[in-house]
Amino acid sequence: MDRILKAARTSGSLNLSNRSLKDVPTEVYQCLEATGEGENWWEAVDLQKLILAHNDIEVLREDLKNLACLVVLNVSHNKLSELPAAIGELTAMKSLDVSFNSISELPEQIGSAISLVKLDCSSNRLKELPESLGRCLDLSDLKASNNQISSLSEDMVNCSKLSKLDVEGNKLTVLSEKHIASWTMLTEFNASKNMLGGLPPNIGSLSRLIRLDLHQNKISSVPPSIGGCSSLVEFYMGMNSLSTLPAEIGDLSRLGTLDLRSNQLKEYPVGACKLKLSYLDLSNNSLTGLHPDLGNMTTLRKLVLVGNPLRTLRSTLVNGPTAALLKYLRSRLSNSEETSASTPTKENVIASAARMSISSKELSLEGLNLSTVPSEVWESGEITKVNLSKNSIEELPAQLSSSVSLQSLILSRNKIKDWPGAILKSLPNLVCLKLDNNPLKQFPLDGFQAVSGLQILDLSGNAAFREPPTFCHLPQLQELYLSRIQLSEVPEDILNLSNLLILDLNQNSLQSVPKGIKNMTSLKHLDISNNNISSLPPELGLLEPTLEVLRLDGNPLRSIRRPILERGTKAVLNYLKDRLPDQ
């Protein structure tokens, strides 16, 4: 503890999470007073960040006031039943997380923490939020989900900077018009799983709203003003009591996802057929037919209709591919209308996918016959997953280097010839890279040092390599796919990938499996099918019981009888283990 506290006095940050603590050590409250040997008090830094999450702490003492410079306090996932009044003396605090405790009431003094920007009090036993919270004028992110809150304080109209509000899983029966009028900065609003009977008529004043989730309430109608939510991308109204929709819903030009499942809708309005949706869920309603104009919604990737008494459509159409259903509906239009429902342009599909990515952080541009990477991939700066597979891309643009949030990059089935090392080196958070089925000329010679954080790597189907790859700089790799790359032997450094769970060496020219395979103790799936392997080393049996799947078909194996092979992985591994020489 002394060592940790000493480091905290230097950095201003202290993390004591996951330590089975039942109390906060006294030294934490006296962090600056307890300078140790070899430390100068005048060099100590005030504690600004304190993480006490995932412990068994039951009480926070009033001594918390000693930490007056605290900016971040996280005591989530503990056993707290209350917070001390001293919480209000932390006037520099911007982020407070007390989620997943047993707190039944927040102290009124919390309103004195006037710098508060983010508050998470979800998953507690709160029946209300204190009125004083209305004094936290900079509050922009409030999460109070999974409590027992039945109403929101009038004073919260003062929190006009709110951009994210999550009150899912409470007992709210009404949303106040005054609140909605004040919260015009909202971009994300989740009030699902409550007891709301309706929406305020001024809901359309939330023009910045991107995501609105109101599923599983008792809402019977949507106000016409909904058309004013002009930035809305995702709208979830499933599991309510809607019998009709206002025509103005067709004005939501950016809407990509619309969830209307499990309501009482008898029709989908014609006006809403002009939406550029990607996903529409109308399942479990009272629809008896669909207007042919719905066929014009050519941006739809998924239309869900199960659980409706549809009488005018064959079940094969209802349950089949969305594209086939839309084509059928278009065929029911008059010729003039049908010609206007042309296939969406590539630009429209990209724009629709970009809208969807605003909240999902995932951008899929698969199979659009793209020859270059569109600027939408890097312009948002917050995308975590990009799928550019099945296109005709030959190289990656330099601008992609700015996508530092990118975690998954899928480039399968393109025309990339040169390893994009310079780009990949600029993506520090990349954990998944798929470059299979490209005409890559060679692997990087540095053992993938530029992408050392990768957990998933797929290089299958790149058969023109001059020399086999090395994998010495991929210590975190969990899945490696190297099928169809003309390997004649298993690269030696693969055997040192201690975290590898899946190894696919299918359809190569392997003649043997190295004895060192026994060191891959985390391996769960090994595919060495369709090679030229005639025998297996007994050491492979040492991977039992961790190895769950061993694929051997398509090899000229002579050392193991067919009945044993047919009994599966466990039988083969046990057979091999029995053939190990006695130690």
From TrEMBL:
Is Repeat included in the keywords of this UniProt record? Answer: yes
List UniProt keywords, sorted A-Z.
Leucine-rich repeat, Repeat
What InterPro entries would the database entry show?
A: Leu-rich_rpt, Leu-rich_rpt_typical-subtyp, LRR_dom_sf, LRR_domain-containing
Key word Protein biosynthesis present: no
Q: Where is the signal peptide?
A: none
Q: Name one Pfam family in it.
A: LRR_8
- Kindly give the PANTHER family that the UniProt entry links to this protein: PTHR48051, RAS SUPPRESSOR PROTEIN 1
The protein's name is Plant intracellular Ras-group-related LRR protein 6
Q: Which organism is it from?
A: Camelina sativa (False flax)
